[in-house]
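Priority: low. Protein: Polar amino acid transport system substrate-binding protein. Input follows.
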Amino acid sequence: MRELLLLALLSPFYLLPAQAQTIVVGAEDDWYPYSGKVGGEAQGMAEDIVRAAFAASGVDVRFVSLPYARCVHMVRTGELEACFDTSRTRENEGDFLWPARPMFTSKALIYARADSLDHDLGPTALHGKHVAVTNGYEYGSDFDGDVTVTREVTNQTIYSFRMLALGRVQYALAFEKVARYLIDTHPQEFSGKVKVVGLSAETQLYCVFSRKFPDAATGLALFDRGFATIQANGTYRDILASWR
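Result:
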């Protein structure tokens, strides 16, 4: 009888669901609409993908919005378990644990002033040129490994565009959705003043995991499993469609 009473008292606790695991992930704060800090919160297509992938594996996510260069530095040093959005290049291949699949692809476009006669440029055309880039970003191995380029490093893509519009650099590199968002939201500054003249690289973007953070390999496995699930059940497709 005492055993039955004890079982009755304990049974509500056995019926409670297990507390979900939580992972802290660094989110790039200035790459909207892919990822950005909007209204004080991490928002964007990448946030939606990462959140859905971990949710499919029963894991909650807490995003910490950080400048991209700081975000990847913290993952490299083991201060942070994971971060996005990172392009995979020859230069950073050994720095991180990489998921089985990229989250999405994006084009790193070459911009010039609107009066430029350039067109169909590739990364080799930037050899020896003065180019505005964003701190820590990867633009493809051909450009990233070119030591002849004079890089004007800015903290945000909008500053690269401003330098270009003012004629302080010959070119600026920007990713397609980010560039379109900046031109649409700052038409007086950029509309009719800058234009696409080439492609540096079409890159695959990942949520990367630390080689030094304790048990980050488990987090990576959970992400991979969840990402495969949302690709199979249509959630991933719906997220991409919502950000077109």
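Residues 107-203 form a domain with the D-Maltodextrin-Binding Protein; domain 2 fold (CATH 3.40.190.10). The chain has two domains: 21-104+204-242, 107-203.
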